[in-house]
Amino acid sequence: MPLPAYALRGEVKDLANNLKPRIHIIGGPGSGKSYIAAGLARRLGVAHHDLDDLFWDCTNSCYGVRADALERDERLMSIVSDDGWVIEGVYYQWLAPSFDAADFIVVLTPSVWVRHWRIIRRFLLRKCGKIPSKRESLADLWNLLRWSHGYDADNLVRARKYIADRGLELISCRTFDDMLTLIERRHKSHPLKAPQKQELLD
Question: What is the pTM of this model?
Answer without folding.
Answer: 0.79
